[in-house]
Amino acid sequence: MKRKPDIKQKENLDEREMQTYRVPAYPVFYGGLLLMLACCLQLVSYQAKAQELLPGHQQNAASNNPGLMAKYRNFEAAMQKVAQVNSLPDPSLSVGYFISPVETRVGPQQAKISLSQMFPWFGTLKTHEEATTLAAEARYQEYLDARNMLFYQVAEVYYLLYELNRLVALEKENIQILTSYKDIAKVKFEHGQSAMVDVLRVDIMLQDAVTNLSILKEKKKALESRFNSLLSRSADLTVEVQDTIQVEKVPTNYRRDSLWTSNPKLDELSLKIKANEAGERAAIKQGLPKIGLGLDYVFVGKRKDMMVEESGKNALMPMLTISLPIFRAKYNAAQNEARLMQESYTLQKTEMANTLGSQYDMAWFELQNQAALLALYEQQTQTSKQSLHLLFSAYSNSGKDFEEVLRMQQQLIKYRKMKASATSAFKIALAELDYITAKSK
């Protein structure tokens, strides 16, 4: 026969049941107001600091990521080619000695020194320099795109870590609530107000929550390792992530105007087109004659057989050389190559513009989708809280429908988890829009 609890025991039981949902009453006095003001100022300061975490991580990644540094070295190496193509070819110096001196009127020729310099056609060096400079600038745009991609990758993992931290916190909270529910169910069972099955139900949910928490912690290690690799630092370092994230309202057609005007990918292809236009002009000039200027100096010995005026006087002979580019195949091929590359990069630019437009639309849809889900989850969370309060009050009075209390509690936790995931997905979609539109940090 079940023993009926006395009135004092029932009051203690109800007191334990409602501890989780009791709202503390704060006294209203001047000291309390000052304390609240100090807390608000501290919170504002913390939020301002938290907003700086992600940009700081991104700048560290830009300074230390080896892949990005390699891209910049490629640009610097390309700039070094400018000095290589805008310089004249090296002059030629030759020295000759006559084993059998050649007799002349003023004496035998004994040795000869020749110095010559070839000059390309007028404007050839300038067009080569222009083509090389444009190609190097294209490498810089490639670097900028890699930097923006790195910023996006850092933001993506950062917001995934934020989501994971929120899920871990919610799972810990869930474990605490379920533990308190288990204690309540035990007390009610001991007083004959509920069945043992209520305790078992809570045990099952507790085991699920503990397992989920363990999985989340292992996943956090993997995400932190990925984040640290982007910043090129030790994989086991703890990543500092803000606790709260504000979801801002994004205006319609957010940065869409800059999608095709300041995108490094499109700018890179535009520069490559211009570089090949200059390359085509350089190929034309390369097929024009080259002019060479030279000077020969001949050492002449004195005649021994007779006296001759100016005997032994050395000879100085200026020279002019002109190349004859009559084999036109290589020059024509160079022009055709530059022309075909212009067409190729033009088609690639059109394709890239189309791709960027579709990527923008997909990212914008994802942003709006997550914004709608956030509003839904917020509403469902509030409704679930009200429902849980009513169900818990009914259970406290009757000891019945404990399964409904557990179900509603898990529903509430689920909506809060989904809200955290939607917040993360919203910020990732916004970061993708910033990457697509090449937003500068």
Layout of helices and strands:
Blueprint (H helix, E strand, L loop, with lengths): L6 H11 L12 H22 L1 H12 L1 H20 L6 E13 L2 E13 L4 H67 L5 H35 L33 H23 L4 E10 L14 E8 L6 H70 L3 H35 L5
Antiparallel strand pairs: 1-2, 2-3, 3-4
Helix pairs in contact: 3-5, 4-5, 5-6, 5-7, 5-9, 7-8, 8-9
Give a structural overview:
This protein has 2 domains: 54-87 and 138-287 and 327-436, Outer membrane efflux proteins (OEP), CATH 1.20.1600; 89-119 and 291-324. It starts with 6 loop residues before the first helix and ends in a 5-residue tail after the last helix. It is built from 9 helices and 4 strands. The protein is 67% helix and 10% strand. The model is unreliable at 1-50 (pLDDT under 50). By secondary structure, the chain is an alpha+beta fold. It has helices at 7-17, 30-51, 53-64, 66-85, 124-190, 196-230, 264-286, 329-398, 402-436; strands at 92-104, 107-119, 291-300, 315-322. The protein has a 4-stranded antiparallel sheet with strand order 1-2-3-4, with no helix packed on it. The longest helix is centred in the last third of the chain and has 70 residues, at 329-398.
Q: What tags apply to this protein structure?
A:
441 residues, 2 domains, rod-shaped, alpha+beta
